[in-house]
Amino acid sequence: MSLLQVQGLAVHYGGIRAVKGIDLSVQEGEVVCLIGANGAGKTTSLRALAGLLPSAAGSIHYAGTDITALPVHQRARLGLALVPEGRGVFPRLTVEENLRMGAYWRNDRPGIATDLERVYELFPRLRERHAQRGGTLSGGEQQMLSLARALMSRPRLLLLDEPSMGLAPLAVRKIFDTIRLIAEQGMTLLLVEQNARLALETSHRGYVLEGGRIVHRDTAAALLASPKVREAYLGA
Amino acid sequence: MDVLLQQLLNGLILGSLYAMVALGYTMVYGILELINFAHGEIVMLGAMVAVSLLTLLVGAGVPVPLALFLALGAAVAVCMLTGILVERVAYRPLRNAPRLAPLITAIGVSIVLQNLAMIFWGRQYLSFPPVQEVQVYDWMGATVTNVQLIIVGVAALTMGGLLLLVNRTRLGRAMRATAQNREVAGLMGVDVNRVIAVTFAVGSALAAVAGLLIAAYYGIAHYNMGFTLGLKAFSAAVLGGIGNIPGALLGGLLLGVIESLGAGYIGDLTGGFLGSHYQDIFAFFVLILVLVFRPSGLLGERVGERA
Predict the structure, then answer these.
(1) ipTM of the complex
(2) Tens digit of pLDDT for each residue in B181-209?
(3) How many domains does chain B have?
(4) Chain A residue with Cα closest to B304
(5) What is the rounded distance in angstroms from the CA atom of residue A82 to the CA atom of residue A141?
(6) What is residue B125's DSSP assignment?
(7) How far from the centroid of its chain's Cα atoms is residue A28's Cα?
């Protein structure tokens, strides 16, 4: 059974029907991406999955339960973590306080200490800056912090919204190296990304969104090879 | 010299009370960007409950420490419940409304609370029962009483407790996170509505303690006392930088000192034209100066830091 099963999901955003009934699923251990042009409904879909936007129609099943009407904090406590677009670092909390917020709802202190050590190994830069305020980090460092903070919740499903946005090429490569590493360790990922090539090269499967509807769905390799997708989204 | 020292001492005592009330304004502003104009009335409510219960208990022969403890406990409970209720009924439904709507609602809540208190307690002043014999100490030409020292001590302990709560606990971290980015706090599993309710409860508990201390300081409580007090504490919060907790402490103390020095010297400054009963003008004069020259306050966050 799928870890995430979405049926007929519609989302209204700012008076616009931004997502018009989409079906998608993510299996445990899978890396899946949503690609599409600006305004295709990628971010809106992800925000609705996390509970930041209400669903106008359709259903969201996660780990066998219907979470369509569940508020955002309860979805987070089920292990559904979103790394939001724009990173959402708490600017006046220190790096370490930001990371501890990721583990806010957990009660196992030893486990939290272990995970803190683990994310510091994964991102040595964050250890160097652990006492610095989040708002003083560079964009790439904030993206690392946002990702590390999500890992602190020990998520079962990680939703990543535009992790490359606004970053220098070197920082993008670093973030995607880390994302692949996390995926190889068995994390289930649903990735939204403007950079379609990068997204497909990182994923097992992909969905292509256009005007709030899914217009293609296939394995990442097939989408990379498809002439239609290549022409519209890969610039070749 | 002795006048200066005396006014400085008076100012710090008064300022510690302003600071406690200013904290309530600043905490709510930090988390909701709402100026909770009803907060002054919560202080009034705390003072009225504490004084009337204290009078009742002492009159019935209850030992003074126990009576004080019970009166304070009741004031804290009533204020916390009122604060939570006001948030739930008046502010939460307007959470996503334009900012003017909750502001006007806050003024409305303030008027409602004031009138309820007038109906319940009447228009007369309640006097603080003489529970503690006043002793006067001389210090370098200035005087200070044991009651004033107790007031400052309790205020300092309460505010120290608040700082520990906000900076050192998981709940405090959730409060700060919610203030900085409500949406992301929710993504971290924080029940944002609960944290906001708790913030109102904590601010109201501080207001209750402040109400008791202010009634002890002036010796009276009155249904109308929250209005000017609220405006002054709000000015103190703005002076320190609204939304900033150390700023509220600093702003409260500074405002107390400014007001006290102003009251002490206003006669000399104006050649006897204005007397010390004009002391209230200083708070608002400071408010205007801050709003004109440094709207972010003394310790206000620079805009760039709000990523």
Answers:
(1) 0.94
(2) 999 999 999 999 999 999 999 999 999 99
(3) 1
(4) A135
(5) 17
(6) P
(7) 15
Q: What is the pLDDT along chain A (236 residues), one digit of tens a residue?
A: 799 999 999 999 888 899 999 999 999 999 999 999 988 999 999 999 999 999 999 999 999 999 999 999 999 999 999 999 999 999 999 999 999 999 999 999 999 999 999 999 999 999 999 999 999 999 999 999 999 999 999 999 999 999 999 999 999 999 999 999 999 999 999 999 989 999 999 999 999 999 999 999 999 999 999 998 998 888 75
Give which of B19, B23, B72 is closest to B199, Cα–Cα: B23
Q: Decide if B188 and A102 are in contact by the 8 Å CB cutoff.
A: yes
How does pLDDT run across B47-65, given as a tens digit for each residue? 999 999 999 999 999 999 9
Please report how many Cα atoms fall inside a 13 Å half-sphere around the Cα of residue A41, on the Cβ side: 24
Distance (Å, whole) CA A70 – CA A78: 10
CA-based nearest residue in chain B for residue A154? B188
Q: What is the spatial distance between Cα B38 and Cα B33, in angstroms, rounded to a whole number?
A: 15
- Is B180 close to A84, i.e. CB distance below 8 A? no
- Pairwise CA distance, residues A75 & A70, whole Å: 6
Quick one: CA torsion of B292, B297, B303, B307, rounded to 10 degrees? -160
Spell out the domains of chain A, with CATH numbers in brackets.
4-233 (3.40.50.300)
Spatial contact of A152 and A178, defined as CB atoms under 8 Å apart? no
Residue B144 lies in a domain: yes
In a domain, B287, yes or no: no
Strand partners for B144: B137
Chain A hits for B186, CB-CB cut-off 8 Å, are: 51-52, 71-73, 76
- pLDDT at residue number B62: 94
**3-state class of A204 per DSSP?**
coil
**B190 → chain A, closest CA residue:** A73
Q: Got the DSSP string for B227-281?
A: HHHHHHHHHHHHHH-TT-HHHHHHHHHHHHHHHHHHHHHHHHHTTTSS-GGGTHH
Q: Which of A216, A175, A184 is nearest to A203 (CA)?
A: A184
- Asked whether residue B291 is assigned to any structural domain, the reply reads no
What is the extent of the structural domain holding B151?
Answer: 2-222
